[in-house]
Amino acid sequence: MGEARKKKTPLDEFFPVHLSGAPARIVPVSLNGSGDIRLGRQANGLALHAADSGDLSAGDEVLCYSFV
Description:
This protein has 68 residues and is mainly beta. 6% of the residues lie in helices and 29% in strands. It contains 1 helix and 4 strands. The protein has one helix at residues 39-42, and strands spanning 13-20, 25-28, 45-49, 64-66. It has a 4-stranded antiparallel sheet with strand order 2-1-3-4, with no helix packed on it.
């Protein structure tokens, strides 16, 4: 994780991210709802914030799916 992320629900949360570099570093893409069309231009991956984890900190490792 390139920056911190707060847990919003007690469930698994998938959130859009931008992946870059080697080793890969991800930065969450801000989301203004499901109709936010900017995601197609900014996000190139989807990351998992697991139900059994608390808030994420910069530097934490997370499972991420790349669109490229």
